[in-house]
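Researcher: I'd like a structural prediction for the single chain below. Treat it as a standalone chain; there are no partners to consider.
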Amino acid sequence: MLKGIAASAGVNVAKAYKLEQPEVVIEKREGEPAAELQKFDDALAKTVKDIQGVKERAAKRLSDEELAVFDAHLMMAEDPEFASQIKAMIENDKVNAEYAADTVANQMVAMFEAMDNDYFRERAADIKDVTFRLKCNLLGLQIPDLTAIDEPAIIVAHDLTPSDTAQLNEFVKGFATAIGGKTSHSAIMANSLEIPAVVGTKGIMENVKTGDVIGLDAIDGFVYVNPDDVTVEMLNQKSAAFAEEKEALKMMVNAKSITTDGHEVELAGNIGGFKDVEGVLKNGGEGVGLFRTEFLYMDNDHFPTEEEQFEAYKAVLEGMGGRKVVVRTLDIGGDKKLSYYTFPEEMNPFLGYRAIRLCLKEQDIFRTQLRALCRASVYGKLCIMFPMIATIDEFRQAKGIFEDVKAELLAEGVAVADDIQVGMMVEIPAAAVLADEFSKYADFFSIGTNDLIQYSMAADRMSENVSYLYQPYNPSILRLINMTIKGAHKNGKWVGMCGAMAGEPYAVPILLGLGLDEFSMSATQILKARKVVTGLSYADMQKLAEKCLNMDSAAEVLDYVQSEVKA
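Model: Treating it as a single chain, here is the predicted structure.
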């Protein structure tokens, strides 16, 4: 038995398909430049075509947000600077194309991995993925085709790239990887596809061969290699119970999210575009708590026009059939870049020129988005929120631009809804501390816990060395959330949460007790959260939350909640 991290729930037993990539051996040889350049151009063209093919197959199963990684890969493969460096080496050093590609790629990976921010570290992973495919194409090596799996299988791999995960078909009953965590690409995609997954399973590659029987317990994070009959029966029972629970949850699709003592909250979904609306509705979402509009920009080769944005916002509002849709204005910068816009070089872009800071400076971009949103507002129930707000002046300035745009449209004779709520993300500790003052101006708050936690703990959540500090249950984080909620309620405003914490089964009882009004999460988490809410007493959770606020550590909080609540 091997222990890993349960990243996407489910239990299955099937034969192992051990994913072993071809061994790429690069030898330095003297090459004739013209022939090697042609070989490189052909291999690069095939690489681009391969990535486009993977993206097309993935588009049938993945959301716009999840597909964005393939755009990053295409951007890398089509980067003229990358190609020119390899070609220059072929011509100047008269070496073979694969050696030049490997040398340039290794230099770029080393450079990006040494940089201290998320965007560049992720870029390093993209370079590895793309150049591995390129080198295989140069050497004539065959990359395993996961789409060819035609019998039930559990994939065992060191890791699964986004390209790998996109190829998984109905015969794949789960996967186990040697590395990775709950926020890795493979884990996120597994959740979206509802495929059981255990990641970070040390020793998996050394202890498994293709054809072994694998018992995958992605509820508790165990992998059994060639389990005995007793273990198989235990896993089958656990699988049946899980399937029964999933089926029972479907009965709650149209249910209200009301506690045993009559307190009602709203459970909403996070989306990246219209494609995700169906998932929210299918899983009983009562609205959209976060529409990440940056994907309209990231999946483009230009700033989307007012008309392009209007059509996208209109489609989502109409698709949600009058349910509330909270749209976050452009949140770009940090690890989210655009191919057609050059950001200033900064030591720490996560603390730099991004989100509302960019929009207030580049007002043409901001006004175009706000015009499109205002025009679309008549097709549904629209709420607009500004990201990365740190000061009241920033919020008032942003809201002033919104009011100006609205007045401008009305003067042009364009219809605009008169009930648009304008709020803000609370993801900077300064905003949480001053929530009671912010709520005099904002119609609502949405707490972005992913950034709030890393800013509060001064810990990059993508860094393995400080990952232990990413603590949603830390009493200091809970106190910031409590201040935000109390500050909003003081002035009669509602508070949502759209960070990952909102969908955590053991976080829900605490957040409920603190008075959170709206919980927004991945669509697949909604029904589980509703089950938790409907089985709790609001009065009891208020007492539980109060105790949690006065504890010493995240571990103490989590242990206490787990002892008090069955989630």
